[in-house]
Amino acid sequence: MGLFDQIKFLPREVKIFVATEAFLGIGMGILGFVLNFHFLALNISPEEIGALNSIGTFVMGLFSLPAGFMARHFGRKRVFITGIVLIGLGYLMFGIGTTLYAFYPAQIIQFIGVSLLVSTEIQLLFSYAGTSEAETLSYSLLFAVFTLFSGIGTLMGGFIPQFLKYGTTKYQWSIYISALSIFLVAILRGLFLPCRNNNKLNSAEKIETKNLTENFKEHLNSKIIILTLYLFLMGMVFSVVIPFQNVIIKFTTGWHDEAVSYVLTANGIILFFASIIMPWLINELGVIRSYYYVYAINIGLAFILYFKMLPIAFVLIFLLRSGSFTLFLNMVDSQTMSAVEEDKRDFFGGARTFLRSIGGAIGSFIAGYVIQRGKSTLPFLITSLVLLISFVYFEFLVKPIFIKELEKKEEGM
């Protein structure tokens, strides 16, 4: 069955979920592009931005485990929608604030929302998908739509300040528009996505009679420990570059804001295609071989980007690296969640966010520190080293879990 035929037969709930992701991508794309520039225009240094990002990822980790248990108790959709609303509120507060200390509450609220969202998003989507094949395809489509419209949002972020220059900085109205887009996602998903609160329907009494410690002990096992520690390394790899990529491009190339927005828009289009080809790559090469190829490409490209080169060469390699890294992250998120049993996914969703957030906080702090000292390409060298460490971890600990799960699927067929 071709890709379009597979999409056609996806459940209606998955299609709604994927379609509304467009507005989430636009909102996050706009904010992701303008927020650092907004901070810099308000005389906040890159090191202070790094500290602010670290606080955000720390807060996200702190709330991730409770978010998993909240999803089991109150239902995934309710927690999911609450998270989106809090993200929009945080964005709104970024637009209103004018000092570093005003941005800390905005960052905390936003990342509580992000914690609730990422701790429930994949599980909720997979509950609508129904089969493992539909799970992989639906996740690929979700991320593809997000990245495509995030690129569109990035392009909008480069142009809106030229037309709506009014406010504390010329980026303020862009931030307000991004908040509006996020609130729109919450309204549409709240109205059109059904509640899939299976855990509450099946075991509400059991959940209510257990405290947090008992629930923690019930769900924690060696597989979840191995996978969440793996995602700790992924969080560090992600946060060394991604939160600062607009600043890194600007400092490394010396280009103006509009040119940077074009690069990041092209980046969004590349991420779209990288997300789309993930199911095809896994079908053609298999899970393990796919990991080997993607690891090799990502480590090599990140290492190359550390060295001084012409701006145009830097941008081209940056785009190649970004596409391959997105493909890699999609594989990690999809395959690790698929490897976990349905009744443990809410707990795993919270635990993985917790560990990934700690890794992200460390990565953001390191990146802000080195960029502040004028070393705008050093984050890529750090990325290549952490990726190499994660590959060794994958080879000896994660790969056996994936192989075991693949054998189970083959036996079931």
TrEMBL record:
Its main location: membrane. It holds the Pfam family MFS_1. It is found in: Cell membrane. The chain crosses the membrane at residues 16-37, 49-67, 79-102, 108-129, 141-161, 173-192, 224-242, 262-283, 353-371, 377-398. Gene3D superfamilies: MFS general substrate transporter like domains. Residues 13-402 form the Major facilitator superfamily (MFS) profile domain. It is a multi-pass membrane protein. GO terms for cellular component: plasma membrane. The keyword Transmembrane applies. GO terms for molecular function: transmembrane transporter activity. It comes from the Bacteria. PROSITE patterns: MFS. Keywords: Membrane, Transmembrane, Transmembrane helix, Transport. This is MFS transporter permease. It comes from Caldanaerobacter subterraneus subsp. yonseiensis KB-1.
